[in-house]
Amino acid sequence: MKKITSMLLAVVLGATLLCGCGGAATETTGTDTATENTSADAGSAATGATFKIGGIGPITGGAAVYGNAVKNGAQIAIDEINAAGGINGAQIEYKFEDDEHDAEKAVNAYNTLKDWNMQLLMGTVTSAPCVAVSEKTKEDNIFQLTPSGTSVPCTQYENAFRVCFSDPQQGTASAQYIGQNNLSSKLAVIYDSSDVYSSGIYEKFAAEAANQPFEIVAAEAFTADNKTDFTTQLQKAKDAGADLIFLPIYYQEATLILSQADTMGYEPTFFGCDGLDGILGVENFDNKLAEGVMLLTPFAADAKDDATVNFVSQYNTKYGETPNQFAADAYDAIYIMKAAMEKAGCTPDMSASDICNAVKGAMLEISVDGLTGAGMSWTADGEVNKAPKAVVIKDGVYVAMD
Q1: 135 in helix, strand or coil?
Q2: DSSP string, 334-389
Q3: Domain containing 193 — which CATH number?
Q4: Among residues 136, 250, 254, 129, which one has the least CA distance to residue 198?
């Protein structure tokens, strides 16, 4: 009996030791994984690990046309990348938060994504929220790529870059495009002096106008407190003989200006920037009034290159509408992130801060062919290098201009 008892004890002890080794191995693996998730020196990503990319923008409220386009455009790119094997062999998780075009809500959205363990931010969509969030990404050292935040402070820190043109770039490029294509000899400007986007574009437009073969015969401002009646501004433009009105404003106010000009019997050409994109989707607006309106934009949905045709087809199928430039900017943003992350050799086990340090350097070395530009590259101040383009609204759709 003593021998039997001793044997049984030996078996139990052996089994206990084996279980202890198994438990210790599992525990060590878990500890190693946790360490790898915060270390840039870790090895390849663990099986099933993913990159977490967050997005912020208005998907409700007055600027929802922009935010939903960005959310959807990015989703198409992510679906394509994941289907093709991901980034450095890892899949992408994507989470988009609504900020209602409000800076405080954008910060709240950022905190939600931070709690989700976001590693990179694609956003925000509009300028004021983007500037507010950039303060947070700077503090946390998280890489930020805005598809459409145009104000200069959006990229004031070294961790932040943009896909679109900045406000100064849009103002300068618009003046050059109008002048080089002889679109006007006398033009007027109607802008929002209370808005950083609108006033920023106007200032650079006016400065560049001095180098162009046209004259600004009227520059009329409005503010956020007075943006429903534009008859005074329009009358001054008409009396000054302006044959083109430059509108560095958002599409909501532009619809009122076009409607009121029509009521007055005033028929100048209208030229705007990316803020006018969305004008064809405004409820109760007669789209016929937008016929001939021109926009400085990097994307035309009617372009015949394979990449654009494929993107537009996918977008139409999935969302039932034609994508605007904001959707294209976001689509490009995801592929730009992919290119930079691959250049830097990023893996999902890296911390957000380590990814930021790697990717912001890679951004200065990559060149990306996208929907919104060929051979896009970036400077240390976060600005993109690409050629400006323009579209004109014809028969209710955007058509690329030469």
Answers
A1: helix
A2: HHHHHHHHHHHT--TTS-HHHHHHHHHHHTTT--EEETTEEEEEE-TTS-EE----
A3: 3.40.50.2300
A4: 250
> If DSSP codes are grouped into helix, strand and coil, which group holds residue 254?
helix
Q: How many domains does the structure of the chain reveal?
A: 2
Record the tokens describing residue 301, joined without a space.
Answer: 């949905």
For residues 290 and 182, membership in a common domain is answered with yes
Query: Could you give the angle at the alpha carbon of 332 between the alpha carbons of 66 and 330, nearest 5°?
Result: 20
pLDDT over 50 at 153, yes or no: yes
Q: Coil, strand or helix: which one is 121?
A: strand
- Per DSSP, the three-state class of 291 is coil
CB 90 within 8 A of CB 348: yes
Structure pTM? 0.77
Measure CA 141 to chain center.
19
Percent of the chain with pLDDT over 70: 88
The whole-angstrom separation of Cα 125 and Cα 159 is 17
